């Protein structure tokens, strides 16, 4: 069943730049999708539209049957809670511990004052520690976030997204500031999370070789439009 649907979505920025131009797209639960395209093609705009980090200019985006474009208040928070996000520059709170950073993924499940005081129930801590374990950096839980290497910090940000217990993870150029070896580790982590947990993952990349190696479905963008959309042929698949 389709989990994410774009219906004639356009996004024009206030300065007149076209982010997205009449996008129609459908992504199923459990897909592993890589979006490729040159800088300025619209990849970030596409991803940011899915969890409504910005409003689109026209069209509708449906997440699990509900319009995130039209959602307000509690409903919007509820839809967003199911969507984790990973950024190129990690976006961690540098001076906080790894565990505190990961726990911040639980915020959507609580009232704000608890988050401000850092009062998370034991259950949240267990979820956060499990997430750290899944990306193999449990032993760093009490270290300061900025004491970790780039690859480790990106794994913390994956753990933060996981602790949200999302159905969808969006990753905007997650490997752009990493070296080739760490890039592979992060891509392998994301792939494993998709396979083991069934979480839908959409990754923006600007390297086509990496996309071809990992993507089960590759979406190519140019000038705000989808110019290519294909499932990679899997020869071992029968049906
Ligand atoms: P990327 O290609 O990874 O999206 P960019 O360097 O294009 O990165 O953009 C970095 C940030 O600047 C993003 O938050 C993007 O939304 C914003 N941005 C990009 N182009 C413009 C622009 N022309 N005017 C204002 N902000 C922009
Ligand atoms: P990509 O992620 O593929 O590099 P973007 O989605 O960042 O592409 O950018 C698509 C187009 O939208 C570009 O022309 C870019 O300059 C413009 N753009 C992106 N973010 C902003 C912004 N915040 N303000 C104005 N223009 C932007």
UniProtKB/TrEMBL annotation:
<keyword id="KW-0547">Nucleotide-binding</keyword>
<dbReference type="GO" id="GO:0015416">
    <property type="term" value="F:ABC-type phosphonate transporter activity"/>
</dbReference>
<dbReference type="InterPro" id="IPR012693">
    <property type="entry name" value="ABC_transpr_PhnC"/>
</dbReference>
<keyword id="KW-1003">Cell membrane</keyword>
<keyword id="KW-0813">Transport</keyword>
<keyword id="KW-0918">Phosphonate transport</keyword>
<keyword id="KW-0067">ATP-binding</keyword>
<dbReference type="InterPro" id="IPR050086">
    <property type="entry name" value="MetN_ABC_transporter-like"/>
</dbReference>
<dbReference type="InterPro" id="IPR003593">
    <property type="entry name" value="AAA+_ATPase"/>
</dbReference>
<dbReference type="GO" id="GO:0016887">
    <property type="term" value="F:ATP hydrolysis activity"/>
</dbReference>
<dbReference type="InterPro" id="IPR003439">
    <property type="entry name" value="ABC_transporter-like_ATP-bd"/>
</dbReference>
<protein>
    <submittedName>
        <fullName>Phosphonate transport system ATP-binding protein</fullName>
    </submittedName>
</protein>
<dbReference type="InterPro" id="IPR027417">
    <property type="entry name" value="P-loop_NTPase"/>
</dbReference>
<dbReference type="InterPro" id="IPR017871">
    <property type="entry name" value="ABC_transporter-like_CS"/>
</dbReference>
<dbReference type="Pfam" id="PF00005">
    <property type="entry name" value="ABC_tran"/>
</dbReference>
<dbReference type="GO" id="GO:0016020">
    <property type="term" value="C:membrane"/>
</dbReference>
<keyword id="KW-1278">Translocase</keyword>
<feature type="domain" description="ABC transporter">
    <location>
        <begin position="4"/>
        <end position="239"/>
    </location>
</feature>
<dbReference type="GO" id="GO:0005524">
    <property type="term" value="F:ATP binding"/>
</dbReference>
<keyword id="KW-0472">Membrane</keyword>
